[in-house]
Each structure stands twice: as C-alpha cells, then as structure tokens.
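Structure in, sequence out. Go:
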C-alpha cells in the first residue's frame, strides 16, 4: 500500500504555507523553526514559544532527532536491525511498546476498512517495485495471475496477530510494511514531544503528514495548502486549495506522482490488498482531516484504493470523525477530454 514519493524538503506532497505577520505577534512570543531529515524524507517544525526558557529550536532539535531515530529502529524497512525487519525475518523477540502500539493501530484500521488498509501487503508492494526497502525488485506491470495468487496466500491482516508481545504469523512469508501509517504516527510523536515542553502552538510536518495545534499569537489559525494533481511525475508543483488548520491532523495521499508505465499503460503505486492488483480508479488525491495523524494517514491510503464512490460512502458512515477533500479526474460531457473535479465533506475547512 505504498502511497508517497519521498520528496526533498522544498517540495512536500502537502504544501505548508505559514502566513505569519510578525507585527501582529505579541512581544512575548516568537516563531521558531526546525528542519531535519528522517525516514528517508524530511521533517519541518514551526512553533511559537515564550521569549525565555528552554524551548528554543537548538534545545529541541536533538530531542526530536532522537525520537525519530528511535522510531526508525521500530518501523524502518531500510534499517536491518529495526523491529519490523526482524519480524519480517521471523526472529523470535518481544516487540517494544511502540511497535506493539503501531501494530495494534494498523490492525484497528484494517478492521475498520474491511481490509482495504493492510500492512501485510508488503510482498506485493515489493514485487511491483514500490517498496521502501532494500530488496525491492524493479517496477513491473501486472503480475502473472498464478504468481499473484501465490503471493495472496500470505497477504491478509487476519493472518498475523500480537500474542504476549510477540508477532505470530500464519505463514512465514508474510511480511509487514508500515509505510502507509508510519509518517503520520511519527508526526504525532513529535507533536506530543512539543506539548511535553509546554508548546501549545505548532505545526509539525513529517514528509507531508501534518499535525497542528493552537493558533498564531495574533489569533489567526495555521494555513496549509493542497497540491494540484499533476499530469506527470516531474511536473511543476502548484497550489490547488488553501485551508485553515487548528488542533487537527492532515494527510494527503495521491497517485499522480508515483506510478510506472509499461506497455502503454500506467500503473498506480497503491496496491489493493484484496486482489493484489494496482488500484484502478479516477481518484487522484485524498486529503483527510481528523484528530490523529496516524489515522488520517491510513484512511487517506484506504481512500486511494476505494476510489471516489466507496470513499464517499465510508466517510458518510463516520460523520464528524473524518473530514475529507477528494480530487478526481472527471470526463467532460460530449468530449474525450477530462478535467479536475473535487468533492468535500461539509466540515472541511477550505478557504480558497
């Protein structure tokens, strides 16, 4: 269930726009910014802190880096000594509290989405060439049906469980991939760290997964932007809409920059774990707003598998828990052309 291209700092998949008016700020508060790298991508933190105290950026960055390094040891497929790699090698050990929490949250989302979100999809993601791991094969087109069915024998969220702190699998070839929830989870880790230091006005961005708290000293909310879906992977990044963000988390998942072409066909990097095939629908991006960043991350991925209609149906069954903004390709009546169209829940805070 891969979903995000790793992006250098200036071109995040979800563009953050900090509209800061320093003349309107109270003298006792100032803007601090921290920028770093984690999970093969970036993180960026902006916050307001008192003029005096231990909340200066130089005093917080080492703590943030340590937390994110610890998370990599839990969930990174690029670190051979990480817990997830040890699980995938079928090593016998008791998982850390962080790993157990991440696993249980992933399974909860899998149950809520009826298996559309599934962390056991890793063997399929690797076979299609989209995994963030060292043993990924080159990208390829549709798998032969026989091979796809063989892999599906050890894919499925009900085929793995946590017992006594240890992961139990129904099949030794079953492997886990937290990519579709990990960055949202780590953004939440950073947010809680800031709050533990008495910071109550911040914007945390980890690879495009955003947590926001409070407001700017002049009373205005944070403002973030949603990227316009591009026609090609290397097209210039453009703003589509802006929105207010306060005391919520926001994640955008999209298919329009991560794909491969073979035989004249374009294949999405989002894999449907139910049939083992790349998702095929006209949904280009799904932006999810909710309380927890890990949950927004996972639901955004599920929407990319469902497509527009099924996403709308799911969101309709959970009014108030999730707000959403969907961008999709729509046919122009009477022509062979398509246009961008959008749909949003009633409570989604678009301002432009």
């Amino acid at each position: 269930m891969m979903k995000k291209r790793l992006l250098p700092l200036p071109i995040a998949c979800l563009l953050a726009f900090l509209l800061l008016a320093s003349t309107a700020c109270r003298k006792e508060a100032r803007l601090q910014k921290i920028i770093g790298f984690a999970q093969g991508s970036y993180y960026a933190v902006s916050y307001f802190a008192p003029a005096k105290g231990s909340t200066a950026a130089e005093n917080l960055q080492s703590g943030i880096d340590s937390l994110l390094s610890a998370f990599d040891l839990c969930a990174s497929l690029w670190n051979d000594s990480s817990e997830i790699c040890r699980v995938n090698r079928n090593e016998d050990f008791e998982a850390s509290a962080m790993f157990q929490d991440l696993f249980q949250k992933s399974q909860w989302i899998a149950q809520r989405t009826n298996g559309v979100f599934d962390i056991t999809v890793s063997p399929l993601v690797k076979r299609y060439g989209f995994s963030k791991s060292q043993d990924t094969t080159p990208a390829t087109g549709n798998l032969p049906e026989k091979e796809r069915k063989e892999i599906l024998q050890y894919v499925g969220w009900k085929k793995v469980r946590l017992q006594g702190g240890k992961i139990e699998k129904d099949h030794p070839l079953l492997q886990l991939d937290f990519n579709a929830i990990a960055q949202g989870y780590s953004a939440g880790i950073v947010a809680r760290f800031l709050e533990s230091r008495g910071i109550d006005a911040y914007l945390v961005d980890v690879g495009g997964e955003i947590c926001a708290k409070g407001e700017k000293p002049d009373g205005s909310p944070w403002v973030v932007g949603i990227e316009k879906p591009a026609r090609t992977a290397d097209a210039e990044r453009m703003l589509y809409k802006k929105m207010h963000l306060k005391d919520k988390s926001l994640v955008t998942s999209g298919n329009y920059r991560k794909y491969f072409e073979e035989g004249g066909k374009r294949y999405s990097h989002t894999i449907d774990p139910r049939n083992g095939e790349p998702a095929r629908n006209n949904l280009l991006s799904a932006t999810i707003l909710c309380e927890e960043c890990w949950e927004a991350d996972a639901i955004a991925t599920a929407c990319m598998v469902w497509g527009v209609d099924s996403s709308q149906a799911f969101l309709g069954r959970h009014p108030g828990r999730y707000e959403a903004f969907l961008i999709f390709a729509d046919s122009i009546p009477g022509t062979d052309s398509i246009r961008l169209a959008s749909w949003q829940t009633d409570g989604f805070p678009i301002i432009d």
